[in-house]
Design brief:
Structural class: mainly alpha
Distance between the termini: 70 Å
Number of helices: 10
Shape: elongated
Strand content: under 5%
Mean pLDDT: 89
Order of helices and strands: HHHHHHHHHH
Helix content: over 70%
Number of strands: 0
Radius of gyration: 20 Å
Largest sheet: none
Length: 201
């Protein structure tokens, strides 16, 4: 007779967040609720309130998990060349968005729609973490090779560049035309260096 594995509170919470991320992959985000979670997982409502506090808190936690997953998926590889690290991160970004397209579109739409400051904050915090990592994963000497300096202004422009990348990638996934993925990533890499080099000059 098989024994049932008892999950730790952290493991159970991770399981519930994974359910939420999977749910918004093909169903409306607004339908995600603790009632739905209890129905599909068999976890009591009381325990769900203990973990998350309420419906909105659960929804925010799911979006935070989605943002964290993206951050982990695009982590810089161990390579001495900064441009190579950037290209691999961009390739992983495109692959991640392709594999999580519906959930990602829903997240961005809710964040940019202006209806929820909390979701907008989760989105902005995640995007800023991604672009700040460009600077934090490179040495001052590496940045200087490409005429880039780490400053508030260059980080601001990097965040604007990231929004452009998001929009181009989602549009390209819908209709790539004659633009290859390599060409798109080349353009992203060159445009970032050009923008940040101009800001630093």
């Amino acid at each position: 007779m098989a024994t049932r594995t008892r999950l730790t509170p952290e493991q159970r919470r991770e399981q519930l967040l994974a359910f939420g991320v999977a749910w918004i992959a093909d169903k409306p985000f607004g339908e995600l609720s603790l009632d739905l979670l209890a129905e599909h997982t068999g976890v009591s409502r009381g325990l769900l309130y203990h973990y998350f506090g309420g419906k909105q808190e659960y929804q925010y936690a799911v979006l935070q998990r989605l943002s964290d997953d993206l951050f982990e998926a695009t982590a810089p590889v161990d390579h001495p060349d900064m441009v190579h690290r950037m290209r691999v991160s961009l390739e992983n970004f495109v692959a991640w968005v392709r594999n999580h397209r519906t959930a990602y579109d829903e997240f961005v739409a809710v964040a940019r729609g202006g209806g929820s400051p909390e979701v907008a904050e989760i989105y902005a915090r995640g995007r800023n973490a991604l672009t700040d990592r460009i600077f934090e994963s490179a040495t001052t000497e590496e940045l200087a090779v490409y005429g880039i300096a780490d400053s508030a202004a260059t980080r601001l422009f990097a965040r604007g560049w990231a929004t452009m990348v998001e929009d181009v990638v989602t549009a390209w996934l819908d209709e790539p035309g004659d633009l290859t993925e390599d060409q798109m990533i080349d353009a992203f890499t060159l445009s970032l260096g050009g923008i940040l080099g101009l800001v630093a000059s």
